[in-house]
Specification:
The protein is of the alpha+beta class and about 190 residues long. The chain folds into two domains: about 55 residues; about 100 residues, Arc Repressor Mutant, subunit A. The protein has six helices and seven strands; from the N terminus they run αααβββααββαββ. The strands form three sheets. A three-stranded mixed beta sheet has the order 3-7-6. It has a two-stranded antiparallel sheet with strand order 1-2. β1 and β2 form a beta hairpin.
Length: about 190
């Protein structure tokens, strides 16, 4: 992903501040930092003001919480989770997925068809000639992380989709009602 100059500079400021972890009694020269980042003193002060606001925010609002991205209704949101509920605070990808019962059935059908009928061949969603290709296109619109392209014009279920489909299939065979389960690092909630 291409980063703007400002974002790159902000990353450099944060990387520089990380040195305080091992040098807590050190002094940090703002003039050297401004020269290193090729910023005027005013621009550096604006970046530092932002860093200080983040510090206050994380010390007060986020003291007992971690900030995460969450995928819901085809959009990304920011959510807070109590630190006691978080196993791995490093990852902040959308690791919680909400999917409704109809989408679960479609995903299960797609994965079954991919594994047992097409046997690893992808789907052509550009031609809506079959009901299944329409379902693939619809599910991809709401849950794009369940699909991947491999450069041949076809779309394939991702590893996450295949693993999720296998879990769903297992629960369907055992006739157990399931409302949430984990696949890889994802928590899948059925609404």
């Amino acid at each position: 992903m291409a980063q703007s100059v400002i974002i790159k500079q902000l990353y450099k400021v944060i990387s520089s501040l990380e040195k305080f972890q091992t040098r807590k009694n050190s002094m940090f020269s703002l003039e050297k930092l401004a020269a290193y980042l090729q910023l005027s003193v005013g621009e550096l002060n604006e970046i530092l003001e932002l860093v200080f606001r983040f510090q206050m925010l994380f010390n007060s609002t986020f003291e007992d919480y971690f900030l995460f991205k969450k995928w819901k209704n085809n959009k990304n949101y920011l959510v807070l989770k109590p630190k006691s509920d978080v196993k791995n605070p490093i990852t902040n990808e959308p690791k919680e997925i909400e999917i409704d019962q109809g989408q679960v059935r479609i995903l299960n059908d797609i994965v079954y068809y991919f594994l047992h009928v097409k046997i690893g061949k992808g789907f052509n969603i550009k031609q809506n000639s079959t009901e299944l290709s329409k379902k693939v296109k619809e599910l991809k619109r709401f849950h794009p992380y369940f699909f991947e392209y491999r450069g041949n014009g076809l779309i394939y279920p991702s590893k996450l989709a295949v693993d999720t489909g296998k879990v769903i299939s297992f629960y369907n065979k055992s006739k157990k009602l399931i409302t949430q389960f984990e696949v890889e690092d994802y928590l899948i909630q059925i609404t």
